[in-house]
Write a structure and sequence with these properties.
2 copies of one chain form a homodimer. Chain A is mostly helical. Chain A folds into 2 domains: 54 residues, Arc Repressor Mutant, subunit A, CATH 1.10.10; 126 residues, Tetracycline Repressor, domain 2, CATH 1.10.357. Helices cover 69% and strands 0% of the residues of chain A. The first copy, chain A, binds a DNA duplex (30 and 30 nucleotides) through helix 1, helix 2 and helix 3.
DNA sequence: TACGATATGGGGGGTCCCTCCGTTTTGTCC
DNA sequence: GGACAAAACGGAGGGACCCCCCATATCGTA
């Protein structure tokens, strides 16, 4: 059916891969709301086949971005092991932001939640969250955070910035630096 | 045609208002991608009439949100006149963020640019930008900003936060406070 | 009241998402 | 090397959407 496992029939695995390749191209051009029918057409399969392999748009997006997201999470572990907690977190957030900014549709995907029938532990959502949690925990222990910050808040912030900069990584880096360093010189007023 | 002016025929003005009322309801429920056909149905007019009054989705959204955005901009002037520059900016950004967070579809609208045939000076985009510019200029003169910040960057950040918090104003306030105060205790590392 | 300008709305074309179901392909067992 | 059941496929169709054309109805005015 829709699993990637080796127990599937050969044509099923082949079609799944074709769909992923086609999806990558179309999403690269049109973002997260790319036409599913066009993806199926480009892959040379019927639209029913696409829906059988990926029961929802979210499932397809998740599969398309899975590899890149895993790479990003390995990178988080490298940074956590190699740098001071504050730098590890700052560098990773910048890499995350740059990646989501330059990968069309990814920020949208990460913002939309894990989605229906996808196991949290291998959704892009879940992977990113776990990677961030490690870095945030380390930073908290080292007391380099200004306040208690939940990992999902930082991810939301990074995603938000990616969305707001609409594909311009320079703008994204700048906004992230602002947010990390603080826009104002003293804390914001209570209203 | 699509202008609101008094030179239009009475039925035209009436239909325009009905469309705006219907749009407000449907957008409140479905956000910025609400069905235009449903809006026309609910207003009791044909879909062609909707398209004649509002040639693009963006034009309709712009008209729907215009009043609220103007109120927000008046508020910016009040704050600029009544508070210290830093507080005026901080308070207004929070009000902006709260408003865009609780008004479904507004953040999306503001992020999508002024859009085709809409005059910049009375697009929601333009109005907000001008309001922010005044506050930012004052804050810069008072040297309470951590770095040179363009108004559109702050607006992008606020919009991004609204989008990221998906309708939860508490979360939005928290993220904004984080961004304004800074997440890290010392400036982020150079990579 | 009659008339021209203005505005309307039904309907059609194109696209999209998703599902049903008859047909084809695959893997396996004899 | 068949035969057979399970698995996978894809065309077609329903429902929804956006947008435009143009025959018709409505409004403001002379």
């Amino acid at each position: 059916m829709n699993a990637a496992g080796p127990g599937r029939r050969a044509d099923s695995r082949r079609n799944r891969q074709r769909l992923l390749d086609a999806a990558e191209e179309v999403i690269e051009r049109d973002g997260a709301q790319a036409s599913l029918e066009e993806i199926a057409r480009r892959a040379g399969v019927g639209s029913a086949t696409l829906h059988r392999h990926f029961p929802s748009r979210q499932a397809l997006l998740n599969a398309v971005f899975h590899e890149g997201v895993e790479r990003l999470c390995r990178r988080a572990r490298e940074l956590a092991d190699g740098l001071a907690p504050r730098d590890a977190l700052a560098v990773w957030l910048e890499e995350l932001t740059t990646y989501t900014t330059t990968t069309r549709g990814l920020a949208m995907t990460l913002m939309s939640g894990p989605g229906g029938a996808i196991a949290v532990e291998d959704s892009c959502h879940g992977l990113i969250h776990d990677a961030a949690a490690r870095l945030v925990t380390d930073a908290e222990k080292a007391e380099v955070l200004r306040a208690e910050v939940a990992p999902h808040e930082l991810i939301a912030l990074a995603n938000a910035i990616s969305l707001a900069s609409e594909g311009d990584p320079g703008s994204a880096r700048r906004l992230l630096a602002l947010a990390l360093g603080g826009v104002l010189k003293s804390p914001p007023a209570k209203v």
